[in-house]
Each structure stands twice: as structure tokens, then as C-alpha cells.
Write a structure and sequence with these properties.
This protein is of the alpha/beta class. It folds into two domains: 3-189, CinA-like (Maf protein); 196-392, 3-Layer(aba) Sandwich (Rossmann fold). The protein is 36% helix and 22% strand. The chain has helices at 3-23, 39-46, 63-70, 80-97, 149-167, 196-202, 236-249, 269-277, 293-299, 309-315, 325-337, 384-392, and strands at 27-34, 54-58, 103-112, 123-131, 134-142, 184-189, 207-210, 216-217, 225-228, 253-258, 285-288, 304-308, 341-348, 354-355, 370-372, 379-380. The strands form two sheets. Strands 7, 8, 9, 10, 11, 12, 13, 14, 15 and 16 form a ten-stranded mixed sheet that branches. It is elongated. The model has no long low-confidence stretch (mean pLDDT 90).
Length: 393
């Protein structure tokens, strides 16, 4: 028996123990797999305790599904670049699902295997694991015609599990043990973005502070008062509201722009820089990966958020939590536990209705979280979307 066969036998004998160690590693992972190897999900769940590790697993198999998952149309489905993008998007998803402070992993795997049509290129797969320290990629090229589809699927599934095991800090063999001597296995670190904005967009940072003079800091102390928005564009209403909030709280106000959004594509680097340029010489901006106020409160504990009455209404409406009153109450309670609160401005909606905090059905137990800004001090009758519409017209 050659050494490769012996290693494979040893791996088979310890397979369940390896997966159990992954479940107990303290990591929280999201997996995205396309093209082949989805059996890795079943392998992980076949060993009890999978819920301790696996937050979610998706198989965006159709090209349209993959495009929707990534937020862009990849030039090639089976490539290192696509695997890295899938891993980083998976880690973003893990950050939304996991408890605060969890050790997060995102795995992206893309494969081109045996099909019912002749394949012109190599039979291959790329597996990327994104963690806080960076993203590692493993690439495998299989001998063409040596295995049928089922055998290639099984090999790639096992390679995915082994790559994830290494990301979990488990002492597992290299996926190379699965291959024959004439097949190729390579690893590399995905190019790390050195610019803080690029690192934020790639998922390597959760928050970046942009100071009025253009300096960027990835770990500045949290501000006391924050005015969130998309600022597309920044307008005088935003600036006036910030001045009013500063007067009420007697603290400097920072603006906050999330590069990810609940129902829109994430912002790219150019768009982030364009919106940030509006604040040059004017104000501090917190760039985050926190599309919801619960996530903002986790990143910026103890902050007073400045919002319009329409936003306050969404914060306390169960329909924005999938109709789940308990989920809404849990989110508000965690926001309260983190020392956050809200200043609520009067807002005129697109139909001309004037809404204030008095019109919002705040549950009595959370009334202390919300403080009204008197209409005599501020009322917002325009929005960025109104300005964009006028510009188009």
C-alpha cells in the first residue's frame, strides 16, 4: 500500500472525529457551494452537533442564482475569483446570523466536474475560506476521465470539509491526500486589500471611521451620536438635523453609511468613495457593514441614533421582523441592553402626511428608548430620493 492510500484509510477512520471537532471549534460558518461538492453539507450534518458550527448552507447552482447571491455577474463561474467572492459574501451572511463576538467563517466553493456533455476544460474546483485574518484558497485539478460524476462529487465534498476543518483550527489532513500523485493541488492567500475601505467592502473589517480631513481609521472610539443614511445625495436637511441633534445631546454628531443593505446590492468601492467625498471637511463618517439598527448597535454600543419618524415606525413594527412580535421585542431589548437609544425627527412622507413620534405605536416597555425632536426645532420635508427624482426630471 502506498503512502497516499494509507493516508486516505486513516482519514476514513477518523472522519467523524474530525467533523465532531469542527462542531466543537467555536466557529460559526456559512457555506456557499456551486457546480459540485454539495455533499459536504450532508457530511457535516451526518455527525451530531452540526448546529453549533453551521449557520446556513446555500447552493446557488443556476447562473441567475449565483449572480443574485454575489450581487454581480461573475465573468466565470468556476474560478478562484468567484470562490473568493462567494466566501466573503458567506462571511458577510454569517455576521448577520451569528451572535455578537462569534468567530466567523465563510466558505465558497465552485467546481467544474463530469457532465452529460463533453467538457472542454479541466475538471477542477476552487475552495475559499474567509476568516478574520484573511481568505485562503485551495485549487484542485483532477485527472480527466479517471472518475465518474459520483466519484468526483464525493472527492470535492470531502475536500470542502477538510478546507473548512483547517479554517476551524482543527488538525485535519490537507485535501491533497484525496488526490492521485499526478493530480494538482495548490493553495494561496487571496490578495489582501490594504486600503481600509476595500477591506471593509471585502469583509475584512466591520467598521471604518472617515475623519473630515480624509484620514481613515479602522478602530476609532465610537461616537456618541450617529445619523445613519444612504446620503445619495447628502443634502441640507441631513446637515441641519445633525446640528439640531448636536444641540440636544451636547455631543458631536457623526454620520453613518452602511456598505451593505437589507434589500439592495452592496455598494462598491467607487460608490462608497463618491458618497464619502460629500463629507470632506464637514463631518466624521462611520462606514459600516451594519444594514440594521441591531447590527449598528452591536458595532456602536451606547450610541444615540438620529432617525425620522418613518424609520422609528419600522423599528417597532412586527411586519419588518417577518411578522414576529417576539423577534421585534428581542431586537429592541438588545439595542437597549447595549445602551443605544433614538432621537426621532418629524418627517413628511411622500404623500404629504406629517409623521412624528406621537404617531408611532412604540411598545410601552421600550418607550424610554425614543425621544422626540420638537417640530419647532426640525422637520424634514425632502429626501435624497426626492432630490434624485427632481434631477432626473
Amino acid at each position: 500500500m502506498d503512502s497516499a492510500s494509507a493516508l486516505r484509510q486513516q482519514l476514513n477512520a477518523s472522519w467523524a472525529q474530525t467533523i465532531a471537532a469542527m462542531h466543537d471549534s467555536g466557529r460559526k460558518a456559512v457555506l456557499a457551494i456551486t457546480g459540485g461538492g454539495s455533499g459536504a453539507i450532508a457530511e457535516l450534518l451526518r455527525v451530531p452537533g452540526g448546529s453549533r458550527l453551521l449557520l446556513e448552507a446555500v447552493v446557488p447552482y443556476d447562473a441567475r442564482s449565483l449572480t443574485e447571491f454575489l450581487g454581480f455577474d461573475p465573468p466565470q463561474a468556476c474560478s478562484v475569483e468567484t470562490a473568493v467572492a462567494m466566501a466573503q459574501r458567506s462571511r458577510e451572511r454569517a455576521a448577520k446570523l451569528a451572535p455578537a463576538g462569534a468567530l466567523l467563517l465563510g466558505l465558497g466553493a465552485t467546481a467544474g466536474l463530469v457532465t452529460d456533455r463533453p467538457r472542454q476544460g479541466e475538471h477542477r474546483c476552487h475552495i475559499a475560506v474567509a476568516a478574520t485574518a484573511g481568505t485562503e484558497v485551495a485549487s484542485i485539478v483532477l485527472a480527466k476521465g479517471r472518475r465518474d460524476r459520483a466519484a468526483e462529487e464525493d472527492l470535492v465534498a470531502r475536500a470542502i470539509v477538510l478546507c473548512l476543518a483547517r479554517g476551524c483550527g482543527v488538525d485535519a489532513p490537507s485535501p491533497q491526500v484525496l488526490l492521485d500523485a499526478d493530480e494538482r493541488y495548490t493553495t494561496a492567500a487571496a490578495a489582501a486589500a490594504s486600503d481600509p475601505i476595500d477591506r471593509l467592502i471585502a469583509g475584512g473589517l466591520d467598521r471604518v471611521t472617515a475623519w473630515p480631513d480624509g484620514r481613515l481609521a479602522p478602530s476609532a472610539p465610537a461616537p456618541g451620536v450617529v445619523l445613519p443614511g444612504s446620503f445619495n445625495p447628502l443634502h441640507e436637511g441631513h446637515l441641519l438635523l445633525a446640528r439640531v441633534a448636536e444641540g440636544l445631546r451636547q455631543l458631536p454628531v457623526a454620520f453613518e453609511l452602511s456598505v451593505t443593505n437589507v434589500d439592495k446590492a452592496p455598494l462598491d468601492s467607487g460608490e462608497v468613495r463618491s458618497r464619502l467625498a460629500q463629507f470632506a471637511g464637514r463631518a466624521r463618517v462611520e462606514l459600516t457593514r451594519a444594514p440594521t439598527f441591531l447590527e449598528k448597535a452591536r458595532l456602536l454600543p451606547g450610541v444615540t441614533f438620529v432617525v425620522g419618524a418613518d424609520t422609528a415606525e419600522r423599528l417597532v413594527a412586527a411586519r419588518y421582523y417577518g411578522g414576529d412580535e417576539a423577534r421585534m421585542a428581542a431586537a429592541l431589548q438588545e439595542i437597549a441592553d447595549r445602551g443605544s437609544s433614538f432621537l426621532v425627527a418629524v418627517r413628511a412622507d411622500s404623500g404629504g402626511r406629517v409623521r412624528s413620534l406621537a404617531d408611532v405605536a412604540v411598545p410601552p416597555r421600550f418607550a424610554h428608548l425614543f425621544t422626540p425632536i420638537p417640530e419647532s426645532r426640525f422637520r424634514l420635508d425632502s429626501s435624497s430620493s426626492d432630490i434624485r427624482a427632481r434631477r432626473r426630471a
